[in-house]
Amino acid sequence: MTRWASAEALALVAGVFAVLALAGLFVEVLDAVGDADDLTVIDRPTVAWLAAHRTPTLTTVEIAITTLGDAKVLVPLVSLAAIAVAWRLRSWYPIVLTLVGLGGVHLLTNLIKVLVARPRPSPPDQAVTVVGYSFPSGHTTGSLVGFCLLAWLLCLLTKRVSVRVAAWAVAIIAAVLVGLSRVYLGVHYPSDVIGGWLLALAWLGAVAVGARIWRDR
Q: Alpha-carbon distance 139 to 109, whole Å?
């Protein structure tokens, strides 16, 4: 086995272990939500405290931020970016990457929501009216995957380290802000958001490992 092949194999093994570790952490949060213990003890006090300390200006800002993570905004944006990159590279890879990344995580998130069936915070704590189940946060999960896919697609077009670092930094910051906005607005508990981040990271890791194997083959 060549040195390059050994490095590739090591990277894949590390990737698989990272995915398993993230999935394990997600299961821990899921278990806490199911048993209503551990992490979830901060859920209701946090939402209630934030509801009591909202300001009109900050609420307006948080609504604008949370809109960025809406599937109606993010899915078309990532899809258009994938099509543009696919046309530029003359490759189907960006489109397949987007379909698997976004489509897969939305299916997974909705399936888990139905299975867990956790009610959202009570309407008096909500700054905006939202229906449906609470765990995991769809906005949080979808936005992290979506923003990271945008960074990933941009990185396919450039080898400049500064651009790549900036793209990933913006993606992570934007995703974190969307997740925090869901708690501030009282439509999700902190554990919903933490679970969403872990699920998104695990899914992105799985997609990255799969993409690496596909491209190497």
A: 10
Task: Sketch the domain layout of the chain as residue ranges.
Answer: 3-216
Give yes or no for a contact between 188 and 140, defined as CB atoms under 8 angstroms apart.
Answer: yes
Out of 113, 118, 120, 139, pick the active-site residue: 139
Q: For this structure, is 188 an active site residue?
A: yes
Catalytic pick from 47, 188, 189, 202? 188
How far is it, in rounded angstroms, from Cα 118 to Cα 144?
21
pLDDT in tens, 145-179: 999 999 999 999 988 999 999 999 999 999 999 99
| 53 noted as active-site residue | no
Tens of pLDDT, residue by residue over 173-190, are: 999 999 999 999 999 999
